[in-house]
Design goal:
- The strands form four sheets. The chain has a four-stranded antiparallel beta sheet with strand order 9-10-8-11, sandwiched between helices. Strands 5-2-6 form a three-stranded antiparallel beta sheet, sandwiched between helices. A two-stranded parallel sheet has the order 1-7.
- With 832 residues, it is α+β, with helices and mostly antiparallel strands.
- A hairpin with a 7-residue loop joins strand 3 and strand 4.
- The chain is 64% helix and 8% strand.
- The chain contains 30 helices and eleven strands.
């Protein structure tokens, strides 16, 4: 009878299903061509990915419209300060003032000058022309002469010259405690690098190039008896984007291995491992390839390197659904591999399409968030997930048909076909039936879930949201910074010199020709603001033009300390400014302009922790408003690393929340036309929202900072997290069409899809959690992603059947028609 129905089906595929069936048969017939196409796509994507280059500028991460970003752009264009690096030379014994040590200081300084993209006038060192010695020759005689000359213009050749340099450095407050530590065991070299060309004419660098060049200098001049260290934002980001990429690559390899092992455990056949990974890896490659095609050869943030983890996770999840249906249901029922592939394709396309599109939504939202690092992750991940919609449907079928017969002849497969429901299936059916048939149990489970979520999520309200770059690149779970050389170097330099992160205040005259710096009230206000900043607990070295003028004035008046003050007349201030620019033309362009109308106060902070940055900028702004009130200048607080950190921190909280809400809203709106319901998408989102809140609470309790890296974990909740519910929904509708009993369909759908959901979600969750020990941000991001997926999977698996049973048949299955068990089996056989 079945063969007769198969030859002359009474009710074959119709409408859209018929088109899908024909497409599947076409792809099976032309599988060799499709396989060749896959190879071509692979090669093209690999070539496109290899042609990408990384240009990660932290100054460009926050929104361009933010006033701190705009102020920082103005400052860096005229004075530099956007890519500041601090280099320390410390001695194990004695002081830095020996012939050999001073030679090393000059060698390193000269090597810094030679680095591509360095801003020459920002280099400050004992051997830079900006460092001066103040001498009174023939003191007390009619021939007494004032000498202001470079401290160490050339290599010292004698011990006497060394002693002279030592004494001059200690006598100069612009050097002692600034470029050489108070104990004279360390010397500091400061330099800044261009992050963007001005007028298309100047050299440009980025953190990896800066880190590589500085690292080469440190290795070149390292020798026994001294320690060379470097710190600053370019060093941190450069290390992550070069040496740190080894950790990312290792993490990805481990991630793939864990997923492969769990897939093998679930399928016990090679195709069950290779086909999901092939789909996933191709999707990840296509994400980068499509980015190269549409957005050019430059990746503007290393955060995009998290995209392969997410794309592989989503791709494996959907592939498992397809293969589980094929191997464990359609082929055992139909007995023909081609018919089973066609039936699987037709039945799985709708939930797979809805799930994949829902996966894309939160990352599409991320692509329009005005943070370059978040946007880069959203673009590459979104393109990779879009490519999966093609790969899962069009390329999976030829690949599966090419290996199906060989795999299906496996004795393990025949054993599985004879095997009935397992113990876990029986237990799940019993539990699901009891929960659905007893509303009191369902109410208790939901109450416990809500209370647990509220308990875990209570810390979210008070948790600080921001990014401390000192720690954000490391792993909060393992406190990996305690073993990281970059962090240890930074802490060492900060302990001796007070900080490595620039905070720059711009003082700009309102009249372009007014020479505002010659105004005694303006110069006095600059001096007072710098004094105020030196008193702040998180600030070390502070450079301002007022201190230079006071020092020079005291020196001119025979070191009479009563003259260590700002002059009260324009002429004397102008003479002091002219003296500095005349002795070293261009040497102070990092501090004030040659028209004497603009200047900066440059301070070095020890931390970019959100609370410290907020307090420091707030206090400085308040003091600046008081000091400069009514004066003919505009004061900008603040640029530099601290200003960029504040721009990041004061926007990231809003966009984290808004991105999550828009992700859930987008998923809700996208689901409506496919699910053909308004209430049902809301039901799907409830467990995801609870899971996200609970996961964030656990992340905070684990000491993880809510920063831009947390967006990946949040996005995966409303994207990949909803997949299980979509597949369950479509399976329930399918069972209802067969059984005609809503509650029984709910129970059977839950039990039958259990294997695929547990294998796919188990692979993703454990694959993410195995990243946790990685000593880089990938560790806590992987932990967060796995945590969100785990909570969403458990809560959706527990709450969805309960909520759906309450809302009833009309809300869940809608207008699905009942075919009946016998007719259903006949139709599926005929369609095969």
């Amino acid at each position: 009878m079945e063969s007769e129905i198969a030859r002359r089906p009474d009710r074959p595929y119709t409408g859209f299903d018929l088109r899908l069936a024909n497409l599947a048969r076409f792809l099976i017939r032309h599988r060799r061509g499709a396989m060749v196409l896959q190879v071509i796509i692979f090669v093209a994507c690999i070539l496109g990915t290899l042609s990408l280059r990384l240009h990660d500028d932290p100054n460009a991460w926050p929104p361009r419209s933010d006033r701190f970003v705009q102020l920082n752009d103005r400052i860096t264009q005229h004075f530099g300060g956007g890519n500041s690096v601090s280099i320390e030379i410390s001695v194990d014994k004695g002081t830095v003032f020996t012939l050999q040590n001073l030679h090393t200081i000059k060698d390193v300084t000269d090597a810094i000058y030679a680095i591509h993209g360095v801003i020459p006038y920002t280099v400050r060192s004992l051997s830079a022309l900006e460092a001066k010695r103040f001498d009174l020759e023939n003191k007390g005689t009619p021939d007494e002469t004032l000498v202001m000359a470079p401290l160490m213009p050339d290599y010292p050749r004698t011990e006497a010259e060394v002693r002279t340099i030592d004494a001059a450095a200690v006598d100069n407050p612009l050097v002692y405690g600034v470029l050489v530590s108070k104990d004279k065991k360390s010397a500091l070299i400061l330099a800044d690098f261009r992050s963007a060309p001005i007028g298309g004419r100047l050299d440009t660098t980025e953190p990896v190039a800066i880190y590589t060049a500085i690292n080469q200098v440190l290795h070149q001049f390292q020798r026994p008896g001294i320690q060379l260290r470097a710190a600053g934002t370019p060093i941190i980001i450069g290390w992550v984007n070069s040496y740190g990429l080894r950790y990312v690559a290792a993490a990805f390899a481990v991630f793939i291995l864990i997923i492969a092992l769990i897939l093998w455990y679930g399928f016990r056949r090679l195709s069950g491992v290779l086909l999901p990974l092939r789909v996933s890896l191709l999707g990840a490659l296509m994400g980068f390839g499509l980015y190269r095609l549409f957005f050019g050869p430059v990746l503007f943030s290393a955060s995009a390197l998290l995209a392969p983890f997410i794309v592989v996770a989503a791709g494996a999840c959907h592939s498992v659904q397809f293969l589980s249906r094929f191997f464990y249901e359609e082929y055992p029922r139909l007995g023909d591999s081609e018919a089973a592939i066609v039936s699987t394709f037709v039945s799985r396309l709708r939930p797979m399409l809805v799930s994949l599109l829902c996966d894309v939504v939160p990352f599409a939202i991320m692509a329009i968030i005005p943070f370059e690092n978040i946007r880069a992750l959203g673009l590459v991940t979104g393109l990779g997930l879009i490519s999966l919609t093609i790969d899962e449907f069009v390329l999976m079928i030829p690949a599966l048909s090419a290996v199906a017969m060989r795999e299906l002849q496996n004795p393990h497969m025949a054993e599985l076909q004879k095997k009935g429901p397992g113990r876990l299936d029986v237990w799940l059916e019993r539990v699901a039936r009891r929960i659905i048939e007893r509303p009191a149990i369902g109410i208790s489970i939901i109450a416990v879930s809500v209370i647990l979520t509220a308990f875990l999520g209570r810390s979210i309200v008070t948790a600080p949201i921001g990014q401390d770059n000192t720690y954000a690149i490391h792993n909060y779970l393992t406190r990996s910074w305690t073993r990281n050389p970059i962090y240890l170097m930074e802490r060492e330099i900060s302990s001796r010199f007070g900080g490595v992160y620039t905070m720059t205040i711009l003082i700009d005259g309102l009249d372009p020709h007014g020479k505002a710096l010659e105004n005694p009230k303006v110069m006095s206000a600059i001096d007072q603001l710098a004094i105020f900043m030196r008193k702040q607990p998180s600030i070390g070295y502070v450079a301002d033009v007022g201190f230079y003028i006071k020092t020079s004035r005291e020196f001119v008046h025979s070191l009479d300390h009563s003259f260590f003050a700002i002059p009260d007349n324009r002429r004397e201030i102008g003479e002091q400014l002219e003296a500095y620019t005349a002795v070293t033309p261009g040497g102070y362009d990092w501090l004030f302009d040659q028209s004497y109308n603009s200047a900066v106060i440059e301070a070095y902070a020890s931390s970019t922790a959100p609370e410290k940055v907020r307090q420091l900028i707030g206090a400085t702004q308040q003091e600046a408003d008081r000091l400069f009130k009514g004066l003919p200048v505009e004061v900008g607080v603040a640029g530099g690393t601290v200003g960029i950190a504040e721009a990041f921190n004061r926007n990231i909280g809003y966009w984290l929340v808004m991105g999550a809400l828009l992700g859930f809203l987008g998923t809700f709106l996208l689901s409506i036309p496919f699910i053909r319901s308004i209430a049902l998408p809301a039901l799907l989102i409830i467990p995801l929202a609870l899971g996200t809140i609970a996961a964030l609470g656990v992340m905070i309790l684990a000491g993880i900072q809510l920063n831009s890296n947390a967006t990946a974990a949040l996005a995966i909740a409303s994207g990949v997290g909803i997949d299980s519910e979509v597949y369950l929904l479509y399976r329930v509708r399918e069972e209802y069409a067969r059984l005609g009993d809503f509650k029984e369909a709910l129970i059977q759908g839950f039990v039958k899809i259990r294997r695929a959901l547990m294998v796919s979600n188990g692979a993703l969750i454990f694959g993410c959690w195995v990243l946790s020990p990685i000593p880089l941000y990938v560790g806590y991001v992987g932990f967060g992603m796995g945590l969100v997926l785990a909570f969403c999977f458990v809560l959706s698996g527990v709450l969805s059947p309960i909520l759906w049973s309450w809302f009833g048949k009309r809300a869940i299955v809608g207008d699905v028609s009942v075919v009946g068990r016998t007719q259903y089996e006949l139709e599926t056989a005929a369609n095969g």
